Amino acid sequence: MKQININSVISILTVEELSQVELDLKNQAFEARSKAYAPYSKFTVGAAILLDNGVIVQGSNQENAAYPSGLCAERVAIFYAGSTYPDAKIVKMFITASPQDRELTEPIPPCGSCRQVIAEYEFKQDIPIEIFFMGAVGEIYKSDSLKNLLPFVFDKNHL
């Protein structure tokens, strides 16, 4: 039997190690999380995306009583950016997530569906997207590309 060894590199940062641009993006993600509509899960997520034109786009999770009809914060932000700024490239994304009843300290990465959507845009623009993610407080994880979070990605080359 053959084996494939997969290595992913994730940096662990503190708030003090963020650049001013990254700190601004973090603050925008926290602001977005405060706008989440999560009456069912009580789990709020905020995302902020920095585009190469300097614009920051926010997204928050939006739930629905028909559960599959809701949308994650990352996809809200990405789809808004894609429809409003179709020629802009996503440079960085910051995600914060936590239940409403406590401050989560564990970094929460994008879900599988969001990873696939991020992959689509990373392939579309042909440059990696830096992804920062955290809970409500504590350490921040940084991936230099979606490929660290989804090494076996499905893309247009498979069609």
Quick structural summary:
With 159 residues, the protein is of the alpha+beta class. The chain has helices at 20-33, 73-84, 112-125; strands spanning 10-13, 43-51, 56-60, 90-99, 130-134, 140-143.
Explain what you see.
β2 (43-51) and β3 form a beta hairpin. With 159 residues, the protein is an alpha+beta fold. The protein has a six-stranded mixed sheet. The mean pLDDT is 96. The radius of gyration is 15 Å and the shape is globular. The chain is 25% helix and 23% strand. It has helices at 20-33, 73-84, 112-125; strands spanning 10-13, 43-51, 56-60, 90-99, 130-134, 140-143.
SSE layout and pairings?
Elements: E1 10-13, H1 20-33, E2 43-51, E3 56-60, H2 73-84, E4 90-99, H3 112-125, E5 130-134, E6 140-143
Parallel strand pairs: 4-5
Antiparallel strand pairs: 1-6, 2-3, 2-4, 5-6
Q: What is the chain-wise order of helices and strands?
A: EHEEHEHEE
Low-confidence sequence ranges: none
* C-alpha geometry: globular
First-to-last CA distance: 28 Å
Largest sheet descriptor: 6 strands, mixed
| Strand adjacency order, main sheet | 1-6-5-4-2-3
- Average pLDDT over all residues: 96
Helix content: 25-40%
Derived from helix and strand composition plus strand pairing, the structural class reads: alpha+beta
* Radius of gyration over all CA atoms, rounded: 15 Å
**Beta strand count:** 6
Q: Percent of residues in beta strands?
A: 15-25%
Individual helix count: 3
